[in-house]
Amino acid sequence: MTVDADGAVTAPGTPAGLDRPPGPRTETIQLLTPEGERVEHPDYPLELTDDEIKDLYRDLVLVRRIDTEAIALQRQGELGIWASLLGQEAAQVGSGRALGPRDMAFPTYREHGVAWCRGLDPTRLLELFRGVSHGGWDPAAHKFHLYTIVIGSQTLHATGYAMGIQRDGAVGEDGEAAIVYFGDGATSQGDVNEAFIWASVFNAPIVFFCQNNQWAISEPLERQSRIPLYKRASGFGFPGLRVDGNDVLACLAVTRKAMQAAREGQGPTLIEAFTYRMGAHTTTDDPTRYRLASELQAWKLKDPIERVKAYLVRTGAADAAFLEGVDAEADDLGGRVRQACLEMPDPQPLAIFENVYAGPNALLDAEREQYAAYLDSFTGEEAR
Amino acid sequence: MTVLTLSKALNAGLRKALEDDPRVLVMGEDVGKLGGVFRVTDGLQKDFGEDRVVDTPLAESGIIGTAIGLALRGYRPVCEIQFDGFVFPAFDQIVSQLAKMRLRSLGQVTMPVTIRIPCGGGIGAVEHHSESPEALFAHTAGLRVVACANSTDAYAMIQQSIRCDDPVIFFEPKRRYWDKAEVDPAANLGAALPLDRARIVLDGTDVTLLCYGPMVRTCVESAVAARAEGRSVEVIDLRSLSPLDMETINGSVRRTGRCVVAHEAAVTGGLGAEIAARITEECFYQLESPVLRVGGFSTPYPPSRLEDHYLPDLDRVLDAVDRTFAV
User: Fold this and answer.
1) CB atoms B92 and A150 under 8 Å
2) Does one domain contain both B168 and B245?
3) Cα separation of A107 and A143, whole Å?
4) d(CA B81, CA B128)
5) How far does A195 lie from chain B, in Å, by closest CA?
6) What single-letter DSSP state applies at residue B95?
7) CB-based contact B44:B18 (threshold 8 Å)
């Protein structure tokens, strides 16, 4: 498979005539090149101070450090599984930092960088992957919904939430909007397509943020789509665009603009952040079975962090002390994540029965009592 | 007191809920201008507007998925699935998302979503319009599953379901939509029988006949016929299918010593199997005979020219009642 610069996908064995480029050249919005050179885009002016760019750099490094620590914890048996965001830091931090405090984000299970931007303590993310809870944080507290594992389901939740924003009269100059994250694989799901339809016909204040990381576990993009994903939006009646997903500045700029349009009542936008899953799908996966090392090497040259670092160093915005300081902070964070994981207690056995229903449930209550009695029957042994 | 069809009683209950709580929404296919294919939502959009009575795109997963999002925003959506057989595109959202959201959030998220499903056969419909999928939902933790059988209950139960902070699957017996009964719009909802309680609709001493939804009328008629033959049948309308009101069920079975469970759904893996197992566990020494099930066959719902054979009628119910006395 090849994905060329204009996003046209060429698959071996493609029937003759069906591999035509899908129209005009695909434009990928970019504000910072892989070499760390700042470029301008007429539709996405972005005025950031050096300190603001340094903050983004810090976010990127810290988020990657959380990820690295979590992978290590899984390898050491402390987490059951981990879904790495390696390579997708810019897409997540750029979009995450574009959100206002009242906007609501709906993640998949890989949005650790967005969680960071929303202020959720990263150690809370570990509960799910350690098997202590299925999530457990309060979505309202950080305007960051629970991780959704079934692919694409959350796009409908976000759309419904956006319809709620409309009904609350919270669309307008000082409005709110929802953003929903999903991947290239999810675009094949019925729910995602239904969400596009709902959002379109109700003109819902929502941004569909697709991180096209090129792989749905082992299946390449060509198994999901013949056309660049962002072009699907036009069929649903709203704008779509592609952004360099490894460019934190561009991701910030396009998401800001799309969110503002949504808040003001201009309806949905599909953003395709063109990026790459540099690691495995999860820690249970072995990508060497289905993709070439050369592909990874090519994407490493487009690393989302290195280009910001190159920019900061070249322009003199950051000195060695700053970079070392960020690295030291990252190591502290890694240590804190590790310690929190190791200290995380298992839930009590009877927690199984909690939070299933809001009100009493006679049959479940009886089951709980029976199991409690059963546990109590093991006198002197570890039970409750 | 006023006499209403079951369909009109639901309409009145929905209207009351919309009046009482501005966060209540009605959403589904054709629920607006048309008033629903069974007219249960007739006139609601005219009075409450398109934002509160929402004609949705034609996609059931989308209806439930967006209802979840609206609930996250603080709304109380009442979704209509047009026919029982059309709920399956939404099954994933109901089972994997709606039912589990509370647990996923450790109780910090509530999902007050009511899903109305016209269910059952007997109206001469084409395929997918006569099914009884309640066991699939009763098997799913996190959902409450209820079935109304008459106008009186329908009016109260739909309001109770909407007020409930758990997701409720609300089954409506479509062949009874036109049955009439008394409804008291002035009655205090708090005085109504709680949503999770069964109701003894006919007292009896010889055998307990458990039923719900469209089978309640059939079972009452069966009990009346049995009485003429000198057999006293106690009929219980379960109303709540999850959780089951085992207190009421066990109380009756311990008195009568015999039990028949009747439903339209196939008996294999059906509610009757669960109920019979529980009665056997909890009332074994009071039982005079095995708990029997009478219901649909273990086949897909047949073409409508055969549905009278598939649906348990008065004679098949009485046959099962008789068999409990055969041992």
Assistant:
1) yes
2) no
3) 11
4) 12
5) 7
6) I
7) yes
Q: Is A161 a catalytic residue?
A: no
Q: Of A262, A228, A135, nearest to B103 (Cα)?
A: A135
Report the alpha-carbon distance of residue B53 to residue B95 in Å, rounded. Answer: 24
Question: Contact B73/A168, CB-based, under 8 Å?
Answer: yes
Task: Say how many domains are in chain B.
Answer: 2
Of A14-18, A44-48, A319-323, B50-54, the least confident: A14-18
Note whether A191 contacts B65, CB cutoff 8 Å: yes
Model confidence pLDDT, tens digit, residues B216-257: 999 999 999 999 999 999 999 999 999 999 999 999 999 999
Task: Based on the fold, state whether residues B9 and B142 are members of the same structural domain.
Answer: yes
Question: What is the CATH classification number for the domain harbouring B251?
Answer: 3.40.50.920
Q: Are B99 and A361 in contact (CB under 8 A)?
A: no
Active-site residue A75, yes or no? no
Look up the domain containing B139 and give its range.
2-191
Cα–Cα–Cα angle for B264, B267, B271, rounded to 5 degrees? 80
Angle between helices A153-167 and A190-201 (to 10 degrees): 20
d(CA B40, CA B13): 10
How far apart CA A309 and CA A315 sit, in angstroms, is 10
The residue whose two tokens read 């599909």 is A270
| Alpha helical stretches, state H, chain B | 6-20, 44-48, 60-72, 91-92, 101-104, 134-138, 151-163, 215-228, 246-256, 271-283, 307-310, 314-323
A156 contact residues in B (CB cutoff 8 A): 61-62, 64-66, 68-69, 93
Q: With beta carbons under 8 A apart, name residues in chain B contacting A150.
A: 92, 96-97
pLDDT digits (tens, 9 = 90+) for A178-225: 999 999 999 999 999 999 999 999 999 999 999 999 999 999 999 999
B224 and B104 in one domain? no
The answer to whether the CB atoms of A160 and B243 lie below 8 A apart is no
Omega cis (within 30) before A205? no
Examine the domain organization and report whether B88 and B124 are in the same domain: yes
